[in-house]
Amino acid sequence: MNRFLYFAGFTYIALCGALVVRELRTSTAGEAGFVTTPAPAPAPPSGSSGEQWFASIKQYCNPVEVDVRTRFSPPPSSVDGAGYAAACFALAGKIDRARSILMAPSTRDRFAAANIVFNVAHPVADAGDDRASGQMMELVLEFWPNNYMARYHAGMSAYSLGQNDAAERHLRSFLDMYNAADGFTENARQALSKIAARSEGPTLRLRPLVERDGAARP
Q1: For 78-101, what is each residue's pLDDT tens digit?
Q2: How far lies 117's CA from each of 87, 95, 120, in Å?
Q3: Is residue 120 part of a domain?
């Protein structure tokens, strides 16, 4: 009887040991990469390569950092890459550099690149910052002269800066192309009315010449 109990106990211990060894082998194989489930690949970022580049560098589109950042992280060699690069330099106030970038693509592609600059500048102008967006809109008009919203924002920017001639030219051109009865036309007409009032100036009244007492008359 004692031998049977001893044999049963020994068998139980051996079985437990075998289970432990099996678990250790499975765990080790998993750590070694043989029994692992590959993680799902991250979803690619949305938008074109130019949009992705601009999203990563937009915070550096300022006069201090733009040159260094774009040198070490250049835009894609594509039409949208040129458009977003021009927009970045234009946001930094480097209009000449932005213009040279827009001139690089073929004549057919320059319009598409200028359209990207407009799309970047438009929300800034719609938010009310006409001064900051004015130069960008002027740049867009060099490549897209019949863009009536660029005309409007360029005109309002010039008006806010007291540049009456440029403001009048842009706003009159805007009203020739756009005649919807909305806030844009109302603002343009009000600005033109104030420009006209500035041009007329105050009416000067000349005081009559009063002869001094005792002055000799001819």
Answers
A1: 999 999 999 999 999 999 999 999
A2: 5, 11, 5
A3: yes
